[in-house]
Amino acid sequence: MASKREEAMRLNYKVGLSALALQATLLAASGAQAAEQEAARDGGIDDIVVTAQKRSENLQSVPISIYALSGDSIAKAGLNDVYDLASYAPSFKSDNVGPADPTFTMRGIGSNERGAGSDRSVVVFLDDIYIGRSSGTVFELYDIERIEMLRGPQGTLSGRNVVGGAINIVTKKPTERFSAAAEVTLGNYDLRQAKARVNGKLAEGVAASLSFTTRSRDGFYTYAPTGKDTDGINSTNLRSKIAITASDNLEILLSGDVSRFRQDGVSAKPFEVGNYTRNTLGYTPLPDPWTIETSRRGYAEVDLWGLSARADLTTDVGILTSITGYRHVLSDSAQDSIGLPAGYFLSYLSAREKSDFFSQELRMASLPDSGPLTWVVGLYFLRDDVHRLEGYDRDFKGQTSRPLWNQDARTTSISGFAQGTYKLTDRLNLTAGVRYTHDDKRLHNILTDESGGTATNGLTPGISAFDVSVQKNFNAFTPKVTIDFSPSEEALIYATVSKGFKSGGFQGLAPTAAAATRAFFPEIAWNYEIGTKTRWFDNRLQINLAGFYMDYQDLQVSNRILTIPGDQSSALRILTNASDAVVKGIELEVLAKPVPGLTLSGNYAYLDTEVKKFIIGTDGTDLSGNRLGKAPKNAFTISGSYVKSVGENSEISFNADYVYQSSMFFFIENTPTAKEPAYGILNGRITYTLNNWSFTLFGRNITDKLYRTKTVPVGDGAFSGFGDPATYGVTVGYKF
Q: Rg of the Cα trace of the chain?
């Protein structure tokens, strides 16, 4: 009987042959009339409007390092979720350590700490609503207007804790013009996906939209004891929006969304990068990376919903905007991070979390064309409550334990901000802004032995039970100054100095009462950046370049410490403050439309990161001079798209992209087992459109490259999970 993977590869081959056949057939139908149509409709590079400065502006005129994707680009690339964005923005990295606890890194800055008393470094916003927990980002990217990725510290306008970067996902606003669309996707690993949306007028001055997605797929791994697949996923998403034009001066936008995500396994397995598994544990790993023997299968479940209301009132003074948001997230997950059969080494991690976020923003912005000074001022309030149960079952050579951390955290944040841009001349602008933030953090943390007396040694040696309540305030003043100059209508040069702030907090997996009581310090970042944004050759070539130097003080980093020196099984990941760190880099974006129908793009990021004096752990490990985790020195994406008419009301498009990153370390420890070699991923799509119908053949990781997305280094070995293998499929869509 053929294995699951062999069946998938056969389907890959058949789909690939079908794609080539369709390509040859459709290209043969092209003609002179099609070429004339292409020339008439091709007007060069399209503008993207962004709201990074709380007003609608052309991306090329905003003096900020932003990578933006339009909704059309997202759909054409086949991006399903936030994690897929790493394929297009080299400065951004995402890894699915567990579907309920993904981590995001931008310019080498991120957070692996998931405790209830900590915050994220790279923050995701949905329609300007702050999403404080990474598990709240599992929704699908469908019916999206655009995505704005603001790189580096954004301490003035983008909200609290944006010390690494911000990702603002803007969904489509309803219009009164009726439109609808639906599509169905089938692929290998039994991929089944459906998407649908409808938009139109409900009443005079009232428009509404509704979108729905569902996706299921078998797992990529095979569970050896049963021979069945594991790590399959199932998700459902629903979003609705209502736009109300109450008067000539008042617009109201109401939104609601709900998502459900399920994964039937979260797998890791020994990866042959050292001798720990063989020599210390006496186990020989299976040679196939996609076959696992873990003694316990994991799971991940996430349920979330959110409501928001936005009102824009135009007055004689300016535009008053109110944004109210509420987000609820419930996640439950577990995984065997080691992945060995019973009797060797069990480390079964589990986490159950409920979080509720309420936010309110009030701001006033100057009217368009109000004179040489444009400004925005505002107030922001956030209240979040997080309850998290986190623990693990440990069995190492007959020594068992079951510690459980019960965490209740409450954060209340109040901030005020102001920013203004003054036009010194027709071509020279000066921008200055500031934000003051006050955070009040409270945490009740209880560590208990959940073995009920059956554990060999109760709690893991090196940790002790406690019940502590702590509270602390964190305040920050984060200014920004930018000067920009436009030598022509097609060019912008800017220089920025800005400060970012990430609040302090308390340990989630603290080993002792003393550690649970002691707060870690806020993280401060100063960013010095210069950049240019240019267009050339009658809007056919766009080149954006930014160079930056970021100085981080008290950088919050997650490191692996041994509660018992020399005992690899006693490891905990603890959030501590490094003395400081420096991140230097260059980001280059090139977009070209040299001839009608052809679009070429390339994005490149160079990162040079260094941790200053930093000694951790009970054994005094010196990490001074190490590189930051998930920060490859070189990363780039090369993309190409070609659209050609092949007859009246029909066209064919070819899309391909190659994503590359040089070697990187997963963690700040820079151990050889946590180093991932350089790799590249090739993706492609072919779409044929006829009237309102579209037919797409796609492939991701076409060369079936094996690469790690997560790892747990133990001794000189590592226990790892891998990125998606080669996946292929067919999508049929209809619009009306």
A: 26
Q: What is the DSSP string of 310-363?
A: EEEEE-SS-EEEEEEEEEEEEEEEEEESS-PPTTTEEEEEEEEEEEEEEEEEEE
DSSP 45: S
Q: Distance between CA 696 and CA 733 in Å, rounded?
A: 8
Query: Tell me, what DSSP letter sits at residue 277?
Result: I
Q: Print the SS3 string covering 632-691.
A: CCEEEEEEEEEEEEEECCEEEEEEEEEEEECCEECCCCCCHHHEECCEEEEEEEEEEEEC
Encode pLDDT of 59-75 as tens digits.
999 999 998 888 888 88
Phi and psi, residue 346, nearest 5°? -110, 130
Residue 16 token pair? 């690939």
Is residue 661 within 8 A of residue 90, CB to CB? The reply is yes
Contact 224, 292 (CB under 8 A): yes
pLDDT in tens, 635-651: 999 999 999 999 888 99
Secondary structure of residue 423 in the 3-state scheme: strand
Helix (H) or strand (E) holding 615: strand 615-616
Q: Assess contact for 129 and 358: CB atoms under 8 A.
A: no
Q: Which residue has the tokens 């702050």?
A: 130
- The whole-angstrom distance between residue 387's C-alpha and the CA centroid of its chain comes to 23
- Which amino acid, residue 603? N
Q: For residue range 563-619, list pLDDT tens digits in order.
A: 666 665 566 667 777 778 899 999 999 999 999 999 999 999 999 999 887 877 555
Residue with tokens 């300007």: 128
Q: How far apart are CA 480 and CA 526, in angstroms?
A: 10
